[in-house]
Amino acid sequence: MTRIRTQISVSGFTREEVETGLTDLLAEFNERPWLLAAAARWDDRRRRLVVSIEREGESLAVQGGDTGATLDEVWDCVIACFIHASDSIHFDVDATEFLRRR
Q1: Tens digits of per-residue pLDDT, 58-93?
Q2: What is the CA angle 11-99-77, rounded to 5?
Q3: Number of domains in the chain
């Protein structure tokens, strides 16, 4: 099966909020074995949490269905792992792409 990498950025957090919850977020991703090569970091220039996730699938869809639930999975993990003071958390799909087979 083909691997797909998706990058999602999340606005509405401060750097301190992201730094406090980042370890928990990565642990939560590890509890979901269908989310592969999960990474997360603070993007200082854009002032956003940036998440990169890989999954197996045949569709670039990031919402709906079994293979297109990447955005929903990231949303669930982020909301569960961060204490946030802001009322306006916003998720953007920055990119999604098929990875070349090695």
Answers
A1: 888 886 665 568 999 999 999 999 876 667 899 999
A2: 35
A3: 1
This prediction's pTM: 0.90
CA distance 42 to 75: 16
67: containing domain: 3-98
Beta partners for residue 54, in sequence order: 5, 36
- Kindly report each contact of residues 17-20 with a partner whose C-beta sits within 8 Å and lies 24 or more positions away, as own/partner: 17/82, 17/83, 17/84, 17/85, 18/42, 18/49, 18/82, 20/82, 20/83
What local confidence, expressed as pLDDT, does residue 65 receive?
A: 60
Residue 24, domain CATH: 3.30.70
The mean pLDDT value of the chain amounts to 89
Whole-number pLDDT of residue 62: 80
